[in-house]
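call fold(seq) -> tokens
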Amino acid sequence: MHIVLVEPEIPQNTGNIARTCALTRSVLHLIKPLGFSVEDRYLKRAGLDYWDKVEVHLWDSLDDLWQAFPQHRKWLATTRTERGYQEIKYEWNDMLIFGAESRGLPASVINSYPDQLIRIPMLDIGRSLNLSNSVAIILYEALRQLNFPGLK
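ret:
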């Protein structure tokens, strides 16, 4: 699976997500600008000793990523849709795309992919779940559907 973080802001979240990617053999894609340096001590601390076990790609833009992976299906996590993440039949190498912690995905991206939007059901009493929790929830549903290939 591919996890895409669009303009992540909090190094601890990205570190936790990197750890999840390492333990599930998922590829992590980070879309600039980042709200931190990749040398950030909080980023490294949150990822613990997993950074050498995860494939990480840094991209200047989403367009650059799309051009590099044109055949991969894309699922965009947002609170601005009704379709639940559990309603999708995931395939190996799908891209799970998440926006910045404070603002989510840009409206231009959401408007460009109206049939590929998914959400995590939750009460409408706050913005949304923590980014690293959201990634784990959706990624593990996709892996569950695929019978956790290569994992034990």
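Residues 131-145 form the longest helix (15 residues).
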